[in-house]
Amino acid sequence: MLKAHSRLLEHLTLAFDLCLIAVCWVSAYAVRFHLMRVTDVPPFRDYALQLVPILLVWGFAFRAFDLYRPSRLGSHFSEWLDVAKASTLGVLVLVAIMTFAFRGYDYSRLVIAGFWVQSIVAVSFSRAVFRELLRFARRRGYNQRYAIVVGGGEPAVEVLRVLRRRPDVGIRVLGLLSDKAETPGGDAPRLGGLEDVRAVLDRQQVDIVFIALPHSESGHLTTVLNEIGDDPVAIHFVPDVFGLASLRGGVEEFESIPFIHLRESPLYGWNRVAKRVLDLVVGGGALVLAAPAMLAIAVLLKLASPGPVLYRQERMGLDGRPFQMLKFRTMRVDAERETGPVWARPNDSRRTRLGAFLRRFSLDELPQLWNVLRGEMSLVGPRPERPSFVEEFRRRVPGYMLRHKVKAGITGWAQINGWRGQTSIEKRIEYDLFYIERWSLGFDLQILCLTFWFGFRNRNAY
Q1: Is there a domain that residue 337 lies in?
Q2: Which among 139, 155, 177 is the end of a domain?
Q3: Domain span at residue 98?
Q4: 179 phi and psi, to 5 degrees?
């Protein structure tokens, strides 16, 4: 019965989509020749001839991209992307048909382009509205599918937690099958052990089986699949990566092979381009605005103490690669001759008088804008450390090196929350990894705004 309803819904959705496509074609013609000023309006019957190939081509394209599969766990964006791909394929085929089968007709390129855009927008919008209506109904108990969760431990806990939080997907968990006596998830009853899968499927109406076995029970996967057999249920496998993924894990398909990323930088593709553009635009503008102050500081440093104005110090950046970080010199030239590499301390005697002022207000960091423009640093990111300190922290703090999966920054989430200087390195890493896990362009802008809002003065800057 459910399958019959699904097929009916699929046919109705396809029919509605094709009606929308036909309306978009007529609309594109009307916009081009009736809303825009033209002297010669071609007859509509020439364009009406294309409705038959359009409906055939778009019907094939929508099915080819599997736009009518059940997608309770899918996203609006992935569906929009599939609609865009299908419509683009449809337009390419349509142009080919017009070129070879309708040589005697002259079709407007603006009509075709407008139709392409309208078809994507109209179908995507109608599907988004339809999905929201379905979610509204599911939250009220309609259009439900029934599921069981096979397995225990953290994977099962996560599945139950997510489904409990998202009643709009319309998946009701009947219970859990686990060899453990204590069932995670609270309100999900234990229906039996792993060997009871077949009995539960025979006894109850089950539409979906979530297999969420922990590592300790991964050897039972084949047994569970054999127990399910050819039962017409949807099967979703949830791998136990929760204890393995350490940084922005994800799943990607390459040549039909699913790859599970356990550790990945957030800055790839367009994310990397967007962050670089932000660094160049904001960093370049900041360097121009700060140039008079930097010139004044350079003159004062030259007059106040002997030695170079700029201080170059090796730091560790993206992927553990070293670079020369620039700072205004705030200590005497031989500051580390006796001590070696050490952190600055309160009332550090190695500082010059002007240097103490510059460090207190972080003005010694201004030359790092040049590191940003050169691509060695970013405006926002974990603060870079000296290689000698990195080796020490790497031994002390688990996961320390993960902070090098993004470029080092002039300011960062840890710094604006007070974790700077001689503060807890563990807390600093915690904040750095929080930033990397949740990176977005908006998060970068938020940190920059907070940096300017609170000012550059920091009680832990010595």
Answers
A1: yes
A2: 139
A3: 2-139
A4: -80, -10
Q: Is there a contact between 241 and 218 (Cβ–Cβ < 8 Å)?
A: no
C-alpha count within 13 angstroms, C-beta hemisphere, residue 143:
19
**The pTM is what?**
0.55
For 112, other C-beta atoms within 10 Å of its C-beta total: 17
**Of 433, 437, 436, 379, whose CA–CA distance to 411 is shortest?**
379
Q: Would residue 461 count as lying in a domain?
A: no
The owner of tokens 């002297």 is 39
d(CA 222, CA 229): 10
Which of 105, 139, 173 finishes a domain?
A: 139
- Residue 251, domain member (yes or no): no
Give me the average pLDDT of each 10-residue run along the chain (462 residues): 60 88 92 81 86 90 79 71 90 88 82 92 89 83 86 82 84 85 67 86 88 81 85 83 61 63 68 90 93 92 85 88 91 65 61 82 90 93 87 81 87 86 81 87 91 64 50
CB 371 within 8 A of CB 327: no
Other Cβ atoms within 10 Å of 83 Cβ, number: 24
Please state, in angstroms and rounded to a whole number, the distance separating the CA atoms of residues 60 and 37.
35
- d(Cα 243, Cα 237) in Å, to the nearest integer? 17
Tell me if 164 is assigned to some domain.
Answer: yes
- Report the b/e string of 212-239 with b at 16+ CB within 10 A: bbbeebeebbeebeebbeeeebeeebbb
86 is written with which tokens? 């299908």
Beta bridge pairs of residue 146? 172
Count of domains forming the chain: 3
Same domain, 285 and 416: yes
Strand duo 250-254 + 257-261: pairing: antiparallel
Q: For 101-134, give the secondary structure using H, E and C.
A: HCCCCCCCHHHHHHHHHHHHHHHHHHHHHHHHHH
**Residue found by looking up tokens 């039962």 in the block:** 231
